[in-house]
Every structure is written in C-alpha cells, then in structure tokens.
Amino acid sequence: MRFLRFAAAFLLAAAGAPALAASPAADTSVCAPATYRLPSGRVIDLAASDPGTLRWRDLDGASGKLVAADGDWVSQFGWTGRPDGHRVSLADCAAGRIAFDGTPAKRIPFVTQETSFTSHGTRLVGRLVLPPGKGPVPVVVLLHGAEFDSARDGNSLQRLLPAAGIGAFVYDKRGTGASGDAYTQDYSLLADDAAAALAEARRIAGKRGARFGFQGPSQGGWVAPLAATRTDVDFVIVSFGLAVSVVDEDREAIAFQMGLKGYGPDVIAKAQEIGDAATRVFESGMTEGIAELDAVRARYRGEPWYKDVYGNYTHIILGMSAEDIRTKGAQFRFHTPFRYDPMPTLRAVKAPQLWALGGMDIDAPSAETARRLKTLIAAGQPITLALFPKAEHGMTEFETAPDGSRLSTRYTPGYFRLLIDFAKGGKLADQYGDAAMTRPAGD
Known about the structure:
- It is a single chain.
- The protein is an alpha+beta fold and 443 residues long.
- The protein folds into 3 domains: 14-107, Lipocalin; 111-245 and 340-438, Rossmann fold; 250-332, no CATH class.
- It has 13 helices and 19 strands.
- It has helices at residues 3-12, 151-154, 157-163, 187-205, 220-228, 246-260, 265-283, 290-300, 314-318, 322-328, 343-348, 367-378, 415-424, and strands at residues 34-37, 43-48, 53-58, 63-69, 72-77, 83-89, 97-100, 103-107, 111-119, 122-130, 137-142, 167-171, 209-217, 235-239, 353-358, 383-388, 396-400, 406-411, 436-438.
- Strands 9-10-12-11-13-14-15-16-19 form a 9-stranded mixed beta sheet, sandwiched between helices. Strands 1-2-3-4-5-6-7-8 form an 8-stranded antiparallel beta barrel.
- Helix 12 (367-378) links the parallel strand 15 and strand 16.
- Helix 4 (187-205) crosses helix 5 (220-228), helix 6 (246-260) runs antiparallel to helix 7 (265-283) and helix 7 runs antiparallel to helix 8 (290-300).
- The radius of gyration is 22 Å and the shape is globular.
C-alpha cells in the first residue's frame, strides 16, 4: 500500500536515491546523508533529494529542499519550491561541520554496521545504525511501504532515530536495492522477512540492544503486526497504515476523495461501482472482469464527475484500453492479498502497539481504521492511537492549490517525537502536536 505509489514507481523504474550533481558549494557526497547537531541540541538531517539538491529534516517536523546558490545552499519551504529564508553552508562538511543559518553544527558520529541475512533462501541487505556510545538502547526495525526504492538509500528514520538515542535497523526488502529475489506484496512472506531482519538486528546489536520493535509505514501497517505474531517484540509502531483490507482501502479512498470534491452519496456510490469493477480485474491478475469494467466505464464516462474517480489503485487502469490491460497488466501482479483482513492479527498481537494516522490521508483514509482501533482499545488491547488531523499520507501537512492538488509543507508536529518516546518505552507525554490521542485503560 499504497498502490498508486508502487505503480508509479514501477512505471518510472525509479530505484534508490537520485545522484547529486556536482556543485560549486561543496562535494555533497561527504555531506549527506548525514545528521548534524547544533549547540542548542537541535538536529538537522541532510539527505539527497532531486538531482543537484538536498533535503533537510528537523525532529520537530520542519523540512526544506536545499538548492546551491552563491557558494552556499538556500532552502525552499517544505516541498513547495518557495524560499523559506534558511541558508546552509557545507564548506566544512568534509571535517564534519556545517552551518545552519550561521550557527555551527557537528556531524553525529553514528555507529554503523552493514550486514546481510537470509530469509526463505533470499539474501537481504541491511544496516544497523546506533547512537554514539556503548550503553544499551532500543532498536527499531524499519519496514517498508509499497515502494520499489532502496530503504537503505531513502529512509531518513535510520538517522533521525539514532540522533534521538534509538538504534535503527534498515534493510532493502526483497526485490529492491541490493536485496535479492523479485518484488512482492505477499504480506506473509514480507512478515517472515521482517522477523529475519529483527533476528539479525538482535545478533549484531548484542548487548547494546535493550528492546526491539517494528515500525511499519503504509503497507508495512499490514506487515508489522503480522511479523509481531511470529517473533518476540517489545513494541510495534504503525505509521499511516490500515486496519482494513486493500479492497476496502480503495473503496474508502474513492469515497473520501469524492467527498472532498463536494460530491454526494449518489455520485460516490456510482464511483465505487467503477472501483468494484477495477477490483475484479486486479484480483484476477488482470485476466478477468475486463468486459465488465469496460461496460461500467462506458456507462459513466460522460458524467462530469468521472474525471475525479481515483481511489488507491482504481485510477491505474481507468485510462487503459482493454487490450492494454490484457497485454500490460502483468506488470501489476505482485501477489497482493487484496482481501486480507488484519483484525484477527491485531487481536493476536501481545506487544504494545502505536498507530499514528493522518486525518487528511486521501490514499489510506483513516476514519474506519481509527474506529476499529478504538474498539480494540476498548476491549483491552494495548494499543495507543494518535490521529493527527491535518496530516496526509506520509504524515506531512500540506497546502491545497486552486486545482485541488496538494503541496507538502512539513511533517506534522509531534509525529517524530511520538515515535521516539514510544520506542523508548517510557510514559508518553500528554500531547503530541495537535494529535487526538486514544490510550489504553490506565495509561
């Protein structure tokens, strides 16, 4: 999950972080990826962004894209492309120093170990990143969404968590990056891979590993709890995941997206007819239900709302001819368990769970998932729910353009701190940003 993102990644053949073009400001290969600490304790993480640019992230959720200018780097607000007034000097980064708005910052000397391990006969490649020092720390095994990219190249939590005193184990899931086998969305297989990753993290962390857990973003929200039923973990974190099936996700996405555009229940029901027909095609591996999809498309194609039907995966084939679906559809066969019901698994997980959801998530709408999680909490499951009302998929906040498109501005305040505090295992704060918190009894 999210089908849109993995389909787009597949079609564009994107893999890994983009290479950085040479810049007169500095050799960025020695500057990023890396994490720096200011004298105030503030953390600035630098990583590759678009070609020739960098992205900085702060633990409070602020972020910007850095573009070389006048020997330094100037920042653009979030993902908007507008200047935000920040400047970064990388002139001394080879010596482990940068300057953020004129304030010096030193590179944090993480303890990093590269490794590989085997799951179901496949070699998977991973990395353990620990905070400086020799003392015991929690370790979070970072799972994956539906992306095709290398997590070792692209997941900034592998540095943000260690900057806050938490170890992180990141690995390329099968079929991505340096790991073997073919890309898959077989949740059971991916859960076994996650359990193998945790075993490897335990092995190489040794005495420094105090407690271990999973963090599953997006599609990883189905995988992490499943993996937690197959190995011993101290905690599970799900970020912008779902407690419904993939099929229900698409139906909910269509309803939420159409509702935001002002359409009523009658139009939404018709749009979901299109989604149901698309589901039959996807579930069959793109071999059945194509005539039925053609019929429902013909029935509604002239309606003014038709152009706004999107969903989570429905949109992928709306513009494809029947022949294209038959001849090109095989590229979308990822062994996705479209009707997997996560609720029995969530009831079976014994470890404490944290679910961080976005109230404005149009890819994985959170309303039904939040309702289901609250029933589990009321029944005594050790689950904490944090619903950030302004966050979308990825836990970013956004601006809405006149055409309805979104531009991300920052990570929602409190999100990173919530993950950090939960992984450490102590009592959570009363509030994280503007999240509505639902906690287990007695917490």
